[in-house]
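Our consortium's second objective concerns turning raw sequence data into structural hypotheses that experimental partners can test. To show how far this objective has progressed, the report includes one record in full. It was chosen at random from the queue rather than selected for favorable results. The single chain below, 375 residues long, was entered without modification.
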Amino acid sequence: MWSKTSRVVYIDTRWLFLKVLVAIIAFTTAITYWNWTRVTEIKFNSNEMEAQWIINHPKTIRQICSGIKKAKKTAGVNFPSDGIQVSLYSKMETREYLWNGSHYLLDKKTGNMIEVNSNLKEYFELAAREIKKRSPFGEILEWEEVKKLFEINNKALIREIDTGNKFTVIRTGGYSHADIEPLNREDTLRLKAIYNGTINWKRRAVVVEIGERKIAASLTGAPHGEGKIDNNDLHGKVGLYFFSKEKNSGVNLSHQLMIWKAAGKTKKYLQQISPEEHIIAIFTAIDQQDLKSLKFMLRQPEELKGNELEQIIGVTVTGMKKKDPLIYDVTVSVSLKKGPYNQKRYVRVNLHKESQMGCYLADNKFMDKVIHSVY
């Protein structure tokens, strides 16, 4: 009788363990890579409008990223320097694009132009609207259109650009501009605060909010004529000027500067004027004590001192002679708080054409002769 010998089978688990380990490492690596490359936030930013809009919703982010990935590459498209910047954030990197406001994106890293499809464009147009809502600036709208929105006896909220002060007004008249009056004593106090308590004829860049519209305008603070609102402590009305192409509109260069400033487009305005107009704009900004606009016009803006400008009551260009293509001898009449008043001074202004900014910039040296007797 024979017996069957049992066999012991040994399974080498080392290979199985190794395969499982490799699979786990591959899976973990894939998950980690996905987490590092996954876009978790998209920011739309406009330097010109000084506003941004951020998207954190995962589904929307996936749709935008998918649209950019699938979009066709193209070439030969000009991009504005003031386009909307689109930033895609992940843990690994930030991808930067520039949208030209129409059908194209510029990949800043590769320089490739990307064609935006209709679905992607809807998101970008939504971003543009959201940025506009958040922007401190207003749109440039002609007076002929404004007066239809801002009829007599209608109310509006006015916000001054530099201080952010807000006050409510009612339109009580005006033909080529809007005559307005603060609604009550509190609104008059807010108006006076813009002028440090003493309102005057200096222009101020303001945004007029009428319903959902935000419109760039220029305000003159000094009351004049007869007021129609009782008990607001103003004793008169003030003028509110909007953009106009009409010569008799009263929109002079000082008003234009303020309107473009209120729209956040001072640099764009300076890019389209002549050297002579640029010099007049410089002295207009000095006259209006508008430090922000003046900084766009000078080569050494960091040297400007606001307290020096505050000593100037007024300055007017009375003569200008061209010496060289970009060198001008300018005659100005200057009045200072401590005197003298209406003193004639001669200054030389040297302009330089700046290719990066696309406008003329002046050396600061002439400023000393304008304000040298302040101290």
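The partners drew two points from this record. Residues 100 and 254 are 31 Å apart (CA to CA). The radius of gyration is 31 Å. Both points have been shared with the crystallography group to help prioritize constructs.
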